[in-house]
Amino acid sequence: MAAAQPKPLTGAAVARRLARGCWSAFWDYETPKVIVVRNRRLGVLYRMVQLLILLYFVWYVFIVQKSYQDSETGPESSIITKVKGVTTSEHKVWDVEEYVKPPESMRVPNAACHSDEDCVAGELDMLGNGQCGRVEGPAGWGQFLGKMAPNFTILIKNSIHYPKFRFSKGNIADRKDGYLKRCSFDELLDPYCPIFKLGFIVEQAGENFTELAHKGGVIGVIINWDCDLDLAAAACNPKYSFRRLDPKHVPASSGYNFRFAKYYKMNGTTTRTLIKAYGIRIDVIVHGQAGKFSLIPTIINLATALTSIGVGSFLCDWILLTFMNKNKVYSHKKFDKVCKPRCPSGSWPVTLALVLGQAPPPPGHCSVDRPPSPIHPGGSHLGQRAEVGPAVLCPLPCPISAPPEQMADTLRQSLPHQDSTPTDPKGLAQL
């Protein structure tokens, strides 16, 4: 009679079996197993990976990035600027308020001249020089624009505050002897004298002053406050940098100009003169970061460093189980699956040492103590009696009870396969 063929599992049954397997595996406990592999190249690789990870955290994370500190970026800042500069032309004294003059146009009445007689000094223009060029030029205008403007000075007063650390500081030295009246900025000698010449700013930005003044442009003065508050306040100093901010090589939007109006009355009528001025715009940008030691980021980064060292073990395990010649042997030694024995309730407890074979099973109700019985006639000592100690017969699963005759037969069947020499003198003496 042919055996019945097993029915194929349906999709629902497969899904239930898979779900049960996943649910059972979810509650498994995994513990690492230590295996010592005596391979010099693998050991060198393991230590090198650990060394690189350790150097990364010590040098970059803790020294460069200062990850042991609590930090704050974007300080509260205030800026005050003041421009100073006085120069003279042939008939006039110029100051900052009069520095920007409107360009002249061919459509201005009597502005065009054909000879020096058409341009009498002091008539059409009080600053006229009496010489006819493309337009009637003001006396000393070109020299003023090209030579005097770079010497104009700009005072940039800046104060910052870090509210998290309650730290405030400014970029001007705390002195009362008229220090600002005679100083000029020098990164090494006078870092707390924020008085800059206009020509110095343009030069540090890498631009030509004459071209920039003619077409206009935007120059950024960037002040960086990078402060380590674990040190003294004197170690927190401003760092200045300069660069051009507007697109220089885009013809449609290069340069800088603005319009403003001047109002005056002529014959009782209010008149306005609209001026389109080209010039140099200064934008002051302040940013910075402050840091101070804190226990919480220190603990977090130390824990991260110690955890990351385990990457070396993961990498070497992957090489060991993938590329080594005896990878299957290593895999068999590394991964063990230990299942809990199925014994009935009331039997001896299952311990981890017992499961791993490191301890003998304790006696329980499954142990059978047999009285002395004669050895099988086929034994080596015919006619003599031998005594044996307690025999532990507990197969898995362990039987709850068995008839004495069955236990005796089992004992007799096992005796010919045992060594005739007693292995438990203590048990023999007790019996």
UniProtKB/TrEMBL annotation:
<comment type="similarity">
    <text>Belongs to the P2X receptor family.</text>
</comment>
<dbReference type="InterPro" id="IPR027309">
    <property type="entry name" value="P2X_extracellular_dom_sf"/>
</dbReference>
<feature type="binding site">
    <location>
        <position position="276"/>
    </location>
    <ligand>
        <name>ATP</name>
    </ligand>
</feature>
<protein>
    <recommendedName>
        <fullName>P2X purinoceptor</fullName>
    </recommendedName>
</protein>
<dbReference type="InterPro" id="IPR059116">
    <property type="entry name" value="P2X_receptor"/>
</dbReference>
<dbReference type="Pfam" id="PF00864">
    <property type="entry name" value="P2X_receptor"/>
</dbReference>
<feature type="binding site">
    <location>
        <begin position="257"/>
        <end position="259"/>
    </location>
    <ligand>
        <name>ATP</name>
    </ligand>
</feature>
<comment type="subunit">
    <text>Homotrimer and heterotrimer; functional P2XRs are organized as homomeric and heteromeric trimers. Homotrimer. Forms heterotrimer with P2RX1. Forms heterotrimer with P2RX6. Forms heterotrimer with P2RX3.</text>
</comment>
<feature type="binding site">
    <location>
        <begin position="82"/>
        <end position="84"/>
    </location>
    <ligand>
        <name>ATP</name>
    </ligand>
</feature>
<keyword id="KW-0325">Glycoprotein</keyword>
<dbReference type="GO" id="GO:0070588">
    <property type="term" value="P:calcium ion transmembrane transport"/>
</dbReference>
<dbReference type="GO" id="GO:0043235">
    <property type="term" value="C:receptor complex"/>
</dbReference>
<keyword id="KW-1133">Transmembrane helix</keyword>
<keyword id="KW-0547">Nucleotide-binding</keyword>
<keyword id="KW-0407">Ion channel</keyword>
<feature type="transmembrane region" description="Helical">
    <location>
        <begin position="302"/>
        <end position="324"/>
    </location>
</feature>
<dbReference type="InterPro" id="IPR053792">
    <property type="entry name" value="P2X_RECEPTOR_CS"/>
</dbReference>
<feature type="disulfide bond">
    <location>
        <begin position="113"/>
        <end position="132"/>
    </location>
</feature>
<feature type="disulfide bond">
    <location>
        <begin position="227"/>
        <end position="236"/>
    </location>
</feature>
<comment type="function">
    <text>Receptor for ATP that acts as a ligand-gated ion channel.</text>
</comment>
<dbReference type="GO" id="GO:0098794">
    <property type="term" value="C:postsynapse"/>
</dbReference>
<keyword id="KW-0472">Membrane</keyword>
<feature type="disulfide bond">
    <location>
        <begin position="183"/>
        <end position="193"/>
    </location>
</feature>
<dbReference type="InterPro" id="IPR001429">
    <property type="entry name" value="P2X_purnocptor"/>
</dbReference>
<keyword id="KW-1071">Ligand-gated ion channel</keyword>
<keyword id="KW-1003">Cell membrane</keyword>
<dbReference type="InterPro" id="IPR003045">
    <property type="entry name" value="P2X2_purnocptor"/>
</dbReference>
<keyword id="KW-0675">Receptor</keyword>
<keyword id="KW-0067">ATP-binding</keyword>
<feature type="glycosylation site" description="N-linked (GlcNAc...) asparagine">
    <location>
        <position position="151"/>
    </location>
</feature>
<feature type="binding site">
    <location>
        <position position="153"/>
    </location>
    <ligand>
        <name>ATP</name>
    </ligand>
</feature>
<dbReference type="GO" id="GO:0005886">
    <property type="term" value="C:plasma membrane"/>
</dbReference>
<dbReference type="GO" id="GO:0033198">
    <property type="term" value="P:response to ATP"/>
</dbReference>
<keyword id="KW-0813">Transport</keyword>
<feature type="transmembrane region" description="Helical">
    <location>
        <begin position="44"/>
        <end position="62"/>
    </location>
</feature>
<feature type="compositionally biased region" description="Polar residues">
    <location>
        <begin position="411"/>
        <end position="423"/>
    </location>
</feature>
<keyword id="KW-1015">Disulfide bond</keyword>
<dbReference type="GO" id="GO:0001614">
    <property type="term" value="F:purinergic nucleotide receptor activity"/>
</dbReference>
<dbReference type="GO" id="GO:0004931">
    <property type="term" value="F:extracellularly ATP-gated monoatomic cation channel activity"/>
</dbReference>
<keyword id="KW-0406">Ion transport</keyword>
<dbReference type="GO" id="GO:0005524">
    <property type="term" value="F:ATP binding"/>
</dbReference>
<keyword id="KW-0812">Transmembrane</keyword>
